[in-house]
């Protein structure tokens, strides 16, 4: 009996992330160096791991409340106040999620209805569109490639004029995956000044906020808190991807609705991970500083190497990615380029097309790897760029 035709038809419209597909496709190549996944190469700080051990010893092995433990919500609101001058009530305006991924899903499934439209600046992380599609809404891409991947107020205005009342939300992701581009205070305020004129939700995914290199990160929630569903977490700032701790911050009336969807998706985040999160947020408030210093050095190295090979790169000022345009004269199909590179030089980087059609002709490199690995990786890419012209 074949029941596959009885699935939700929306599932036919989505697929496993191309990032994951490509990573698995090249994993069996002998000696492969993978600069593919967006995961810190650092280990979780020892004091955070100690907190988890203590939680296990003290039998914190039961459900927490749906919104999360009181102490982790207090720690999260304290952290975000100290770091970004944002004020949220721990009892009603923050929700602990199973990573930022679940935060995105819970938020989108809470607000979207069939026929709604969601604005997405492109290129963009591919984790948003599938959830929008499952909700029977429509992603509307705003192409930023002509402006060094920077979204402008004028671009938003143009999209709103074209799509009008059908727009339910806009998703912002900064510092950006895949480009590493972020926004200064003036740019964030200018975007907020446009968005406050429209009755739309602003889902701001700021998971890389602690990895901003040149200026202090500025959250759009500072300017339009009533519209903003702010998403953050500990995966990137504290090298805690596997702990699965994320946060949604927002006005009480929004959190009250989102928690309903969150409850039926996951019930609650891991209690042991939540106890570790308290330590990370309070005692480890500046744990990201050491990592950020190292990432900055790696960024400079990889940026210099890639530009010397002829790639055009918008210099990133956050996250840990280089997004590079394949030089003229080389294969412009990014998937073919990356497969050939992997097969001939055993170095894996992500095809730009994984981040949307606007990103075709680009590649993404994660420099979340030690310097020895990065040096060898750059040598292999350099060798490939020479040999591919022969």
Compact summary:
It is an enzyme of class 2 (transferase). The protein has 12 helices and 13 strands.
What does this structure look like?
This protein has helices at 18-26, 46-57, 70-84, 99-111, 129-134, 153-163, 185-195, 252-266, 271-282, 288-308, 334-345, 371-387; strands at residues 33-34, 94-97, 117-122, 138-143, 167-173, 201-205, 228-233, 246-249, 312-313, 321-325, 347-348, 350-351, 362-366. It is α/β, with parallel strands linked by helices and 390 residues long. The chain folds into two domains: 9-43 and 287-388, Aspartate Aminotransferase, domain 1, CATH 3.90.1150; 46-283, Aspartate Aminotransferase, domain 2, CATH 3.40.640. Strands 2-8-7-6-5-3-4 form a seven-stranded mixed beta sheet, with helices on both faces. The mean pLDDT is 97.
The CATH topology label of the largest domain is Aspartate Aminotransferase, domain 2
Global shape: globular
Q: Write down the overall mean pLDDT.
A: 97
Q: What string gives the helices and strands in order?
A: HEHHEHEHEHEHEEEHHHEEHEEEH
CATH superfamily of the largest domain: Type I PLP-dependent aspartate aminotransferase-like (Major domain)
Whole-angstrom Rg: 21 Å
CATH architecture level-2 label of the largest domain: 3-Layer(aba) Sandwich
Strand order of the largest sheet: 2-8-7-6-5-3-4
- How many beta-strand elements? 13
Query: Share of helix among residues?
Result: 25-40%
Highest-level CATH class of the largest domain: Alpha Beta
Biggest sheet descriptor: 7 strands, mixed
Q: Please, how many helices?
A: 12
Number of domains: 2
């Amino acid at each position: 009996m074949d029941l596959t035709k009885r699935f939700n038809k929306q599932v036919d419209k989505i697929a496993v992330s191309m990032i994951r597909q490509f990573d698995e496709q090249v994993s069996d190549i002998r000696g492969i160096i993978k600069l593919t996944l967006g995961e810190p190469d650092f280990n979780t700080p020892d004091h955070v791991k100690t907190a988890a051990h203590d939680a296990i010893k003290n039998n914190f092995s039961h459900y927490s409340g749906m919104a999360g433990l009181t102490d982790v919500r207090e720690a999260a609101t304290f952290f975000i106040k100290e770091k970004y001058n944002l004020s949220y009530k721990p009892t009603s305006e923050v929700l602990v999620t199973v990573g930022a991924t679940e935060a995105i899903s819970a938020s989108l499934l809470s607000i979207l209805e069939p026929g709604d439209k969601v604005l997405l600046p492109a290129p963009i992380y591919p984790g948003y569109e599938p959830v929008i599609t499952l909700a029977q809404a429509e992603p509307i891409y705003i192409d930023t490639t002509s402006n060094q991947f920077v979204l402008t107020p004028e671009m938003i205005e143009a999209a709103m004029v074209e799509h009008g009342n059908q727009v339910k939300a806009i998703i912002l992701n900064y510092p950006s995956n895949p480009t590493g581009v972020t926004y200064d205070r003036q740019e964030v305020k200018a975007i907020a000044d446009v968005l406050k004129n429209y009755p739309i939700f602003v889902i701001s995914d700021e998971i890389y906020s602690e990895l901003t290199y040149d200026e202090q990160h500025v959250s759009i929630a500072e300017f339009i808190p009533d519209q903003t569903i702010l998403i953050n977490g500990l995966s990137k700032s504290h090298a805690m991807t596997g702990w699965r701790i994320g946060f949604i911050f927002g006005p009480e009336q929004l959190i009250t609705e989102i928690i309903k969807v969150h409850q039926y998706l996951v019930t609650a985040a891991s209690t042991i991970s939540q106890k570790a999160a308290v330590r990370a947020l309070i005692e480890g408030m500046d744990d990201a500083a050491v990592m950020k210093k190292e990432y900055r050095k790696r960024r400079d190295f990889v940026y210099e190497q890639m530009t010397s090979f002829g790639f055009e790169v918008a210099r990133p000022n956050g996250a840990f990615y280089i997004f590079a345009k394949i030089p003229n004269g080389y294969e412009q199909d990014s998937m073919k380029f990356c497969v050939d590179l992997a097969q001939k030089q055993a170095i894996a980087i992500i095809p730009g097309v994984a981040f949307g059609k606007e990103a075709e002709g680009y590649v993404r490199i994660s420099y979340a790897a030690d310097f020895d690995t990065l040096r060898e990786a750059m040598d292999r890419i350099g060798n490939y760029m020479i040999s591919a012209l022969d």
